[in-house]
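Long-time lurker. I teach an intro course on protein structure, and each term I like to show students one example going from raw sequence to a predicted 3D structure in token notation. This year I'd like something fresh instead of my usual example. Would anyone be willing to generate the tokens for the chain below so I can use it in lecture? Attribution to the forum is fine with me.
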Amino acid sequence: MRWQGGRESENVEDRRGQGGFGGGGRGGIRIGKGGLGIGGVVVLLLVSVVLGVDPMVLLNGGDPADQSTAGRTQIGEAAPRSQADDELKRFVSVVLADTEDTWRGLFQQMGRQYRDPTLVLFTGTVSSGCGRAQAAMGPFYCPMDQKLYIDLGFYRELRDRFQAPGDFAQAYVIAHEVGHHVQNLLGISDQVQAAQQRARNPADANALSVRLELQADCFAGLWGNHANRDRKMLEPGDVEEALTAASAIGDDRLQRQASGTVSPDSFTHGSSAQRVRWFRTGLESGRIEACDTFGTDRL
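-- Reply from a regular --
Happy to contribute to a lecture. Here you go:
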């Protein structure tokens, strides 16, 4: 991925090494049990470790996330900052800046003004407008403060645990969370949350979450289209890196790894095939209209 020398975003807040305990907007982030049992909780943790769970979903109540060591990582507990860490900070700053350029242009075409999100880098734990979060939850977007949060140690998990290395795979993670910011600005997130509150059962609420996440995947692909078309950022093999990451964190694959069984009704992010399909849709089309995951019967 050709990112060196690119513009770095000014919207990066570096809290690494500061810790994160203190007041949060709505208390600690929780994972509701929702009848899933331990296997389901583990699956949700695995999902959040890769691309994060919208904190608004996690704040629905329920018992705190399982406190056992299963599925937990040592993200954020590494040694002092290295040259590689600083290089990674520059990388995410350039990727964030490129998403800003893409979405500013697209919003202008819609007659709207894009508000840049802030990317918060943290170590271990962090306080956000959506409450406290641990690095083991993975990157996430908080609509309450319009900030993206990531512990850069997460990228080791993406490479080692999920076998999805590469700089474009890393960029995909950021672009997906920016996709949630776009959904927030367009009012899509609020509409989905309202519909989930009216849902007749958890399966219907989960189905809405899947469509929201797949749209964020499509928006990530859309960014990749513009990054390549307008700024020639992609190199051979980059697309495959992102598709590998999308496939590695499908709900079906994570559930099978965690418990040996697959329960589609409990999906919250979509299957591997769905995630790959919608990322590719955005990547190939470059159009917001192509990312209407709510207006199709085929996910």
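Some talking points for your students: Residues 17 and 79 are 10 Å apart (CA to CA). Residues 12-291 form one domain.
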